[in-house]
Amino acid sequence: MIYFRALTIGILLTLGAVTAQAQSTNLAFGAVKADPTIPVEVTSDTLDVNQADGSAEFKGNVLVSQGEMRLSAQRVLVIYSQERSGIDRLEATGDVVLVSGPDAAQAQRADYSIDTGIIVMTGDVLLTQGKNALTSNEMTVNLISGTAQMVGRVKTILNPENK
């Protein structure tokens, strides 16, 4: 009986450690590293430019491409640097999909900092890599290093290879 209790406590402690570690997951993202100095191309159904605050709002079937990276959404707000010499960041909302090489991620929102090559996706994030899928509350993608980190209740579905 003592052995059974010790075994049960050991299993519960192990499961607790696995759950704690599952709150954050680091992984590779995209087949090639991106170059944030490459021009950003944006297409959409409509465009509204605000000269006062230096922003441009693309709406409807928005597609943003930069090298191998593709980001689509219903709305993308482009915020220019204070000097208005270049793009500072993009804010994408509504059916956001990010594709880089064979990897794809979906979320409710994505914020892309052009200079750093960092994209933060939030809201029901789903990442698919081949037959494997991961979900979380937030995913930070570093396009330069080709890595991603998922945080906030990470769930993974791994499919073994058929031999």
Automatic annotation (TrEMBL):
The answer to whether keyword Metal-binding applies is: no
Protein origin, superkingdom: Bacteria
Q: Which Pfam families match?
A: LptD_N (PF03968)
Q: Which residues form the signal peptide?
A: 1-22
The record's InterPro entries line, in alphabetical order, gives: LPS_export_LptA (IPR052037), OstA-like_N (IPR005653)
Q: Name one GO biological process term.
A: lipopolysaccharide transport
A single GO CC term for this protein reads: outer membrane-bounded periplasmic space
Q: Which UniProt keywords apply?
A: Signal
Q: Name one GO molecular function term.
A: glycolipid transfer activity
Start and end of every Organic solvent tolerance-like N-terminal domain?
Answer: 41-145
Q: What is this protein called?
A: Lipopolysaccharide transport periplasmic protein LptA
This chain's source organism reads Ruegeria sp. PrR005
